Structures are given as structure tokens and as C-alpha cells.
Amino acid sequence: MENLSEDVIENSTVNCTIDHRIHQVLSPVVYILVFVVGLPANCLSLYYAYLQVKVKNELGIYLCNLTVADLLYIFSLPFWLQYVLQHDNWTYNELLCKICGILLYENIYISVGFLCCISIDRYLAVVHPFRFYQCRTMKAAVVVSIVIWTKEILTCCLVFKHGEVSKDLESHVVCFEHYPIKTWEHNINYYRFAAGFIFPFSLLLFSYYGILRVVRKSHGTQKKKKIQIKRLVSSTIVIFLVCFGPYHILLLVRSLFEKNCEFAATIFNIYHFSLLLTTFNCVADPVLYCFCSESTYQDFAKIGDTCLRCLRCTQIETKESYQLNTPETFRKIKKQAEQQPELLNKTHVVHEMEETSINTFPKGKEI
After folding, report:
1. DSSP state of 58
2. N or C terminus of the chain with fewer C-beta within 10 Å?
3. What is the mean pLDDT of the segment spanning 59-74?
4. What is the Cα 104 distance to its own chain's centre?
5. SS3 state at 365
6. Residues 297-323: pLDDT tens digits?
7. Where would you find the membrane-spanning parts of this chain (predicted)?
């Protein structure tokens, strides 16, 4: 291990005496759980996202990026685990501290960004199936993905230009912990709260409200699928609030009221508990968007049948999965509407698009 040089931290000292017991008790359990569950779950989710890309479904682009952001953070968890087990003493160099911190924040805000992209894409597919079709192409998805990654990387470069390691009163080198909060962090936290939580949450509410309104009025959508869509939409909102809400609210509280060590010590445990909740996003994403899909259940049944067939050397009949629709389906419906307007009125087309949009919810992460 490469130790930090004294000149790096001699002018950066944490003056507060904080009880870090939550790091030794709760954090290791969460990090190990998320790593053990999140790594295989996200690898499987990445495979399903790849299948979407393979059939030219633009959602696959967003899903791949979302899963990659989760995996990058999961790979940094062993370093954070060692850090908390050594009583918050960072034994690596400052560059690795910055990289791990960047992966933490990138996971939060890139995940939020691509969740918004997925919700907007579904909104346009269901509510405006023809009007904004050009916004739902593979090329558009790639451009949007590049913009999101570039924005977040540039933001991190601006935010993390300060020294991110400090020395506490017990001579432990702490990483990404400043108590009380630094002056330069206030405006950054206000930006995170507004652009990283309030604005994306508003987009999610707007998009899913529009989807639910159209699905509720649709007479061509099966009741079972309506229930499934409502369940997934409500679950998405709840998980967004649980994983990201407490952390951003406490960021705002710290920026407004944390002026001394006494307040920092008071809010330390609940703030770090909220930070641990953001870590569960790595598990919640694949569980919600992959394993709640009916078609995914059938895929797992096929995988299980294949394994049994290998073990028993017998032919086991598997259930047929729903055929995966692609954007080509939209073009066929649109062409039919243009050629036969008297046979296919607008209401019928919209209902057809609703059905297609519902069935094109990705096998990876839905809505």
C-alpha cells in the first residue's frame, strides 16, 4: 500500500471529534451485501441490456450505461470496505481516494440521469408515439448518453479539484469527509439538491403520470398489464425517493445549518445512513427493472429448464417467451396508418402503440 505524504495533508485537518461507530458497525454489512448481490445482478442486467441493443432498441443504450455506472461503483466497494474496517484510515494515495469518491457520486447522478432518460423515452413511446419518433432512435440515445457522461465527468473535475484527504485528531487519514462542512461545498450541495434530485424527480413524476393516464384510458390494454405497469411505476418512484431522497435532503440541511462541530457530530450518523441508502440503488435497479418483468420470469424458467436438461439429459418443454418488439414495429404501424387512414383511425393506432410500448419494456430494466 502506498502511504500518503505528509505535505498532502499537513494543511488539511479535521478539527471535529466525531464518533465513527456507524462505519464499523453498519457500513461493512451494507458494502458486503451490495457487492455480493449487486455484482451478479448487474452482470445479468447488462446481458439483458445488450440484447436490447442487439435488436436496435434504444432503451438498451440507456440500460447499458445505467448498469455500467452501477458496476463501476460496485468495483470501488472493496476499497471503501477496507477504509471503514481500518477505523476510517485511508492507506492508499490521494488519487485513489478521488477516484473512489468520483465513482460514488457518478453512480448517484449518472443513475439519476439515465433513469430520467428511460422514463422520458417510455413517455414519448406511449403518449406521443409518432410526434417525437426521431428522439427515440439509437443515434439519439448514444448522443444523450455521451452528453450525460461528459456533463458528470466535467462536474466532478470542477468539484474535486480540492484536496479530498484530511487528517483527524486521532491521526487517521480520512477520505471525502470534511467536518464541519467547507465553505466551497455549500453552493455545490445546492446544485446537487436542485439539479440532481428535485429536477429529475419532477421529470419522473411528469413522465409516469402521463403514462398512467394513457394506460388507464386504453381499452386495448389487458388488465393484468395495466396492473403491472402501475406497480412498476409506483415502485420506481418509491425507490427513487428512498435511495436518493434522504441523502439530498440532508445535503441541504448540512449546507444550511452546519456551522460548527456540535451540529456535525449530531447529524453524522443519520447523514451516513442516508449515504448508505444510495448504495442500495446498485441492487434496486436490476431487481426492480429486470426481475419484475414477466418476460424475464419466463427467461429464467428457460434457463432453469436448460440446466435441468443438462443434469437429467432429458428434453424439458419450456414456455414460449413473448416476442421482443423492436422500433421496426412502430414504423410498420405508422406506414399502415398512412396507407389506410379509413381503416385505421387515430384512436386505434394509439392503442396499438400503447400495446407495443408495453411489450417493448426491456427485459432488463422496465420503464
Report:
1. T
2. N
3. 91
4. 12
5. coil
6. 555 556 556 666 766 654 444 444 434
7. 29-50, 62-81, 101-120, 140-161, 190-211, 232-250, 270-292
Contacts (Cβ under 8 Å, ≥6 apart) of 47: none
pTM of the model: 0.75
Cα dihedral 125, 127, 133, 138 in deg (nearest 10): -30
End-to-end CA distance of the chain: 44
When comparing pLDDT for 335 and 100, which is higher? 100
Spell out the domain ranges in the chain: 9-292+323-359
pLDDT value at residue 183? 81
Q: What is the pLDDT of residues 229-240, one digit of tens each?
A: 777 777 788 889
CB atoms within 10 A of CB 303: 12
CA distance 182 to 139: 42
Residue appearing with cell numbers 386504453: 218
Report yes or no: 363 and 48 within 8 Å, Cβ to Cβ. yes
Given this model, what pLDDT does residue 202 score?
Answer: 94
Question: Which runs of consecutive H residues, i.e. helices, occur in 258-362?
Answer: 261-279, 281-289, 294-312, 327-339, 346-359
Q: How many other C-beta atoms can be found within 10 angstroms of the C-beta atom of residue 109? A: 21
C-alpha cell at 171: 491521526
Q: Is 326 or 218 the better-scoring residue by pLDDT?
A: 218
